[in-house]
Amino acid sequence: MEHVDQLLHARWVITCEPNHAILDNHSIAIQNGIIKAILPTTDIKTKYQADQETTLENHALIPGLINAHTHLAMNVFRGLADDLELMDWLNNHIWPAEGKWVSDEMVFDASLIAMGEMIRCGTTCFNDMYFFLEATAKAAIQAGMRAHIGMTVIDVPTAWAKTPEEYFEKSLAFHDTYRNHPLVTPTLAPHSTYTVSLDNLARVKTIADDNALQINIHLQESLGEIQLSHERHQKRPLARLQDIDMLSNKLITVHMTQVDDLEMALLKKHKVSVVHCPESNMKLASGACPVQKLLDHGINVALGTDGAASNNDLDMISEMRSAALLGKHSTLNPKAVSAQTALEMATINGAKALGIDERTGSLKVGKSADITAIDLGEIETQPLYHPVSQIVYAASRHQVTNVWVQGKQLLKNRKLQTLDEADLLARAKKWQGKLSANA
Ligand SMILES: [Zn+2]
What we know:
Bound molecules: zinc ion
Number of strands: 16
Strand order of the largest sheet: 3-2-1-4-13-14-15-16
Helix content: 25-40%
Oligomer: single chain
């Protein structure tokens, strides 16, 4: 008998790759945070023994969910300004509130609260874009989550940086500190082509090339953005990025509700990833990303919630459902964005977009033990004919019971292990008090 750290025995192991395999009554052996074996439970018990065994009788184990686009600190603005048009929402509500409240303390508190929410919905990895990056990194290390943290560049002054020069300086300092961290990965995050000049975007590209970094950018989120770009530059935003040679497999374009056939060919040619944020797009009435068409073109499409001020949650279980439903509704095609596709967008496609699919994004021997358990035994998901169908179309985040990152347990029987729920609620109350008093 070989000794391992942990054995997880589950009713189903939903691997996501290869071949979308769904394994009945299988177990996962974990050693040093890595998946060592995936075998039928009866076999694994004859080969391995472990100090710690977890039996999940009615559960599906899925790859930890990857939220490929977030602004975690915006959790304190959840519900502050709803039911508004994108530019009105940004110019008259969100940006003024950020101007007043964003600080190191606020970003740390809000990120920590957001991570509590994300772990409770089965998310193990996120790709963030905000300010005061150190605060988000510290929160991620405390929470034990895999964090891609975008070094924001924007041509307007914020509490974090006053000039583009200062954004670049602070970003490079952050990169120096975290470049080799096991959980935190710095990325570049120019906000958009309407808020960052082409010169500064070109500079972002140079830094990305020099340091092999991913670039995240909000792109072609709404028709208004396309019209603005035409008025100012006589070009679409993607064409402007092409002008500075930014299109590559390191580029992550977020939203892309507006994308034509020529642009799809470009995205495919340069292996650019797209992040779809269906609930944010629906709430701000920005349009619908043609997800199935992009996938049919061979373009990698991941899934994100966007910030909690435009969603209003960080729930990747409901986001999968929204992606599947919007995919069908917007094309009048019930076959578009199947349940399996939605699950892959939330797992392996997210890992591909972030360039970490060698490490995470599917349940495969040799990959990190980033795993989420969902209890499908509750009445809401019974009777059960197909576990992926139940997860995407019927389950709620409250059925997520256990979460591991690199084999370390972050959620156990719905209880947070690395964060304290009462502490998170107290932090949320503190900011509610400050923002309400101001209103
Ligand atoms: Zn966003």
